Amino acid sequence: MPESTTTIGNPAAPASRAGRGPIPVIGLIGGIGGGKSAAASILAGRGAEVVDADAVGHEVLRRPEVARRVAERFGPGAIAADGRVDRRALGRVVFADPAARRDLEAIVHPPMFEEFERRIAAARSRGDAPLVVLDAAILLESGWDRACDAVAFVDAPREARLDRVRRDRGWSDAELTAREAAQWPLERKKARADHVLTNDGDPARLEAEVDRLLMKLAPAEPAP
């Protein structure tokens, strides 16, 4: 196995993330199809509490008060027959219109962040996890990194990412490009991260990268 290239302590990262509680919170970001979820899964297997931003977003959209605000802004076509938000129909609108996307974010992001903070506080109160992972593709764009002690970027070559989204989501090169255009450029995200994990397609290497990060952020207590 090649020597790990995990970057610990990126000197270009912001210095404002620090010390919000006894259990560290790591924000996990990366390019679409880059293996962020795989890294989160490894961390979960090591006992970390993982907060999945996508899952939280789906839960928030199911709240009646949020569905009402979505209907007021986007019309009845955004609501399914069961009264819930039609995420597929809504997605077609917001991915084609940056102003519409910003309006949707103004509706859903505040309650999402409240839920992140609630889950982080609950995990810290239980004290049974070495760290909390906030798995969020748009962590930096949304300012959610203010809930984190550090941010890790999962770095994967574009061709590998394209292969994954073709296989798993049926996306074309053009679709991947369009989706990425709605996020910050990857180099900007990478520069803002405190740690960089290389995901070159070798699962064992990604595990080693994640374990090194875990040892740095949440070292095991010495045996009595």
Please provide a written account of the structure.
The structure is a single chain. Helices cover 49% and strands 12% of the residues. The longest helix is centred in the middle third of the chain and has 29 residues. The protein is globular and about 50 Å long. Helix 2 crosses helix 5 and helix 3 runs antiparallel to helix 5. The protein has a six-stranded mixed β-sheet with strand order 1-6-5-2-4-3, sandwiched between helices. With 224 residues, the protein is of the alpha/beta class. The N terminus is likely disordered. It has nine helices and six strands, in the order ββαβααααββαααβα. It folds into two domains: 144 residues, 3-Layer(aba) Sandwich (Rossmann fold), CATH 3.40.50; 76 residues, Rossmann fold (3-Layer(aba) Sandwich), CATH 3.40.50.
Walk me through the topology.
Elements: E1 7-8, E2 25-30, H1 36-45, E3 49-52, H2 53-61, H3 64-74, H4 87-94, H5 98-126, E4 132-135, E5 150-155, H6 158-169, H7 173-181, H8 186-192, E6 195-198, H9 203-217
Parallel strand pairs: 2-4, 2-5, 3-4, 5-6
Antiparallel strand pairs: 1-6
